[in-house]
Structure formats: C-alpha cells, structure tokens
C-alpha cells in the first residue's frame, strides 16, 4: 500500500486552526467598495468595476500569520469573510436579525445560534456598518436591473417552482459568473507587467484615433490595465507585510524565510515566477485577486500538477528545494485555499456544504502536446496533501488514461480510503473526444481540460463555460417536479400552479409512449423557459458585469480586445444539469410494469396514490418497491427507461443556444441538490414520498441498486457519456474492507478501469460502512474528521444536516 510522507508541525497547526474555525464576517470590503462606487457612480461598469477592485487592493487589510508559508486573506481576520456588495448588497445581514437571534458574548462579538451547522461571528460595529450601506446597494447592485424588469411570462414560469429560479429567491444576477478555470498558467509564466504593457501599447498606438469598433476594444484594454495595476499593488503590499513581519521576528530562520517570501512577492507582483514557491504563491495571489474582484463562486485551480511541475523540476535539479520542502509548500497551498471559504448561514450552507470553496483541482491525465501520460511528482503531492491532512476541500479530480501508472492508482485509492470521495476519477478516453465532438475543441485544448465546481468539464484558461447558467447557482431543473406536472395535466401538485401547456392526466394515458410524450412536452417547455431566463441574464451581464480581472488571464480576450463576459474567450458554452434522472426512469418503469405490462393496478389507482402522497396506499407502494425493476441493476427493463430519459435530456439541450454560445451543455451532477430538490417535490410514482430526496446526480435511486457495483456500472453505460460535457457524477459506497487488503485495492482499480473501457466518464467512491456512519451521528466529536462524498462535493460527515447524513446512509454498502 502507498505510504504517505509526514507533515510538519506548522502545517498541522494551521490545519487544526482551519478545522476549528469560527468565521468572523467584517464590513471592510463592503465599505471600501461602497465609497469607490459612490465616487465613480456614473462611470460605465467596464471601468467602474476594476476601479473598485483597485481601491480594494490598495486599502484592504493584508495579513501574514506567524506560521504561514503561503499568504493571502479575504478579510481582516484569519479565515474571516466579507461581502461583495456590488453583487449581494449588505449580504445575509439584510435578512438576519442578528441583534435578537444571535448571542453577544464576552469577546464582543455576536455568535450565531448553537446547533447551526456553521459557526459564525460578527462585531456589532460591522453589523451597523453593513446596515448603513443597505439602501445604497438596493439600486446599485449588479442585479438591480435584472430584478426591475423581466420578459413576459417570467413570473408565471417562476411560480411553477420547477427549477432553481424560485419566487422570492436570490434573483437572476446575485453572484457573478465564475464556474471556470482561470488562466493561472499565463499569470505565473507571463506576469502582470507584460499583460499591462500589451494593453497600454494597443491604447498608445490609437490615442485620439479610435475608429470602427476600436472604442469597445479601448474600453476593454483600459479595464485590463487598471486590473493589472490593482493586482500589482495588492501583491506588493503582501511583500511589504512579509518584510514588516521579518523586522520584528526574533527567530533567525523564520526571519530569513519571511525576507525571502517578501522578495518573491515583490517580484511576482509584476514578473513571471522564478521558483516553485513563487509559482504557488502567485497562483494563490491571483485566486485572491479574483475573490476580491467579484467573489467568483467556483474558480478552479485547473491542472495544478502540470503548470507547477516545470518550476519544481527546475528547483529540484538546482538543489534549491528538496522533495520534503516541496511537499510542505503544496500542503501550505491547499491549506491557504481552505482559508478562502466564506460561510453563509441557512440554506446555502446546507446545500453546498460547510467549507466547500469549489476550487476544484485537476491532476494527472495526458500531456496536451504529446498525448502521453503526464503523471509527475506534483500529482502525488496533491493526493498526499488531501489524504494526510484529511481535507475534504478543494475537490480533487484525477484524470485517468490507459497509461496511468499503478503507483498513482495506489496513491489515489489510499487517499480515497482516508477522505471519502476524493479523488474523483475522470476518464480521458471519453472526455477528450467528447470535447472535440460536442464543443469543437482543438485536440491540444481537449487534452488540457480541467474539472470545476462539482463535476463540470471545461477548458483550462481559455473557456468561458457558464456550466451552471450564467449566474450560478441557477443550475438545475427539478425533473421530479417536471414529471409530476406532466402526469397532472400541467399542474404542479406541490403548489397547484398550472403551466401554460397541458399534458393530460396519467389516468387518461393508454400506454407508456403517451406517458413519455407528456414528460417530453413538459420537459421541453420548462427547459426552454429556463434557458430563456438565463439568456436574459446573459444579455445584461456583458454590460453590467464585465470581468477585467479574469479576462487578463483568459486566452482570446487580450487577443480580441474583448471581455470574457462578452464572449472574448477562445471557447464559449453554457449549460446546466439534470440531477437524479434515475428517479424519472424508475417512475417510467413503474408505470410501464404496474399499469401496462403486468396490469397490477390501473393508471387511476397509481395516480390517486401519488396525489395522496401514498397515504392509504402503502401495500401498493411496497409492491412497487419490491417488484418493479429499478435502474442500476443491469436490468434492461429499467435501464432502457434511463437511456430514454437521458437521451431526451441531451436532445432538448441541443435545441438551446444564445449569441455567445452555440452549445448548451448537458450534465448529470449536483452538489447536494437531490436532497434540496426533494424537499419540494411531490410524491412520485416510483414509491418516493413527498419531501424525500430524489436520486443523486447520475446514480441509481438510494438503496435500489441490489446487484453490486459492477451492475451499477453496466447500467450506467447504456447511454453515451461522451455527449455529457457538462460532467457526470456517479457515486458508489464501498465497505472499508474492500481497501483493507491488496487484492481488494486491485479489484477496485480493475473494476474502475473496466468501467472506463466500456465508456464510463466518471466515478467516485465513499469508503465507509453504515455502522461507522451511525456511530458518527451518535458521537460527532470522535468522528469529527470523517469525510464523505455527497454528490458534487465532499464534507465532514458530522457537519452535514441530518437529511444529508441519512441520504449517505441510505446508499448501498458494496463489498467484493
């Protein structure tokens, strides 16, 4: 079995501080940006936004902790949080009665109520400051225009409650587009000065002579120059903070380290990185810069091992670093990434998980130029960091190809044993040709793909993919709701709302073809409306929410003189996800089996049972659960229904587009959306009751896969995974005994390889038994570091709400 290196004392100290964090929210960022926007109120957004970022970078608190090797903070305190008021106004303070529902303790801070999943604090003066700017941001938020007017029919669509667009929800433009992989490789290899010079040279050459479409390009290049200046001043301030820390440091070794860190930061504030440490620190600085600029919801780190290996290789060859020293830098990098989590109270923490930053990191895979396996020492280091420190974040995707070394498999599976669901296994042999066929990627760029957010597949530093819609988290259509509406003549039984189209009632349908036709009609109607709303948000985004800080690193933008939000990147697409289509497949199988093929009940009886939430129909429900074939058991009767519904979903996606993107990508993933969707999805014909979760991501319904993991893989391969370039998530839970012996590890590896050889795109494993999960519920302190995979993220099991915990427990426990 693979053996991990030890970690240093200061790394574990930082890890424990993060693990035990209580997040203090402050008003600093919000106040600085408010003053900047007041000063520049009438300046056009493409200039006003980077000017605001510059003011933030020049004035925000910068911190260097005594134990830090990689620096960068989003707020005044370690692991603290702030607000981006241009997007969210004064944030959750607007709807949280802190003064009356939180407790003011001796430390002078309000503390949120005991028992909530996330521990939060805020000072009274910060509450007052945030309340003082609420009125200003009501009319000056990016989303104010979208909230003021919407296309005809929007409100009727919203009231159906069949998507994440909900009445009285978070609005159409509440957070920025940010589900992508920024151009970290460009930043650390080119530097801000060279990028700024490119912009300035273009402007100087046309000073006083802007003709044709030159003005739009000028505005972009001006915004890019301001953004580069902002990044430079921010990083220089961190360099000076290291120097200041060194001046008062009594430990000679630490003093020298701080001086070296300060010099490195001053250098990379304008220039390309020269060393492994500078490359890692430069990547974190750019990530921090993006967070300050807009609070992007999921800026992935991309192929970290590929763009970092040349720097490490050089340092190892010159003797500047040892492997142990390099491992500590990687440890420090990912711990610092964990510090970027900004918690929010309430539903969001329950749905997206505590501590999840969505800075998805991709390792392994093939070389973009040669197509050969590209595994290198950094690949292993990333897995060691996650495994040794038992970190559930960032999510790690391991790209697998036919030549992936057995040693890497061993390291990956040992990591999986320690932290459930990490890494995710992604299949190069399916994804690379899929990107070429579906999105028109050049071979080199397809080979260089990375994974973001939950599971979304994107280009690295060249792709503006908006894979959750242009303003996430509007990612999902609730297909369980859609099915209920389809068999109820266009009426949502949850709320009684009638859609504009009618589909008939289940008891009027004479065969499974008519049931399928009703679902197709309603699914097409909902998806088209969903994309229409997204396209309206896209229309507003290009003007109101350009992203200069992001665009300076993205291939295509500087070349075209066009912001990423306007379509400047080399590749453009968008998309969504269909969480839990196994629920729909099982509904179709149930109707076909019970009503048409076996005639165990009439369509009227089944309809009445569903509409009454199975009350009074328990014998019928139990018959369905025990007799009807279910997806995930290698049974063509059920698997054919899954293939039909998945193929339909893909076909509907191909009918959608917008001016920036010709492709609306199909995905089969979710965060813990399957649990949240279940809360307001009425009962379904497969025996599921109102409020219960639907199937997670692309997985079978909970506990309905009875024939083991190979049967799940057989069922999963009935559809063409190459079409689903927004990503797929397939969860399996394995008993720990599987990975407790060498032959079990080999069997799991070989089973995964066989699945990939048969066309599987992705899989992820929880390695935990039911007894342990039950014990963790009873004794959270003992199991505080138990990590599990939900669907689109991993989490510490004890920090999940009870419904999410029970959802994990309900999944089958597989053995060999």
UniProtKB/TrEMBL annotation:
The Glycine radical domain covers: 696-816
Coiled-coil regions in this chain?
none
The record's Pfam families line, in alphabetical order, gives: Gly_radical, PFL-like
| Any one GO molecular-function label of the UniProt entry | lyase activity
Among PROSITE patterns, the record links this protein to: GLY_RADICAL_1, GLY_RADICAL_2, PFL
Q: Which residues form the PFL domain?
A: 9-689
Top-level taxon in the UniProt lineage: Bacteria
Signal peptide start and end residues: none
Q: Which residues carry this modification: Glycine radical?
A: 792
Q: Name one GO cellular component term.
A: cytosol
Q: Which InterPro entries match?
A: Form_AcTrfase_GR_CS, Gly_radical, GRE, PFL_dom
What keywords tag this UniProt record? Lyase, Organic radical, Transferase
Name of the protein this chain belongs to: Formate C-acetyltransferase
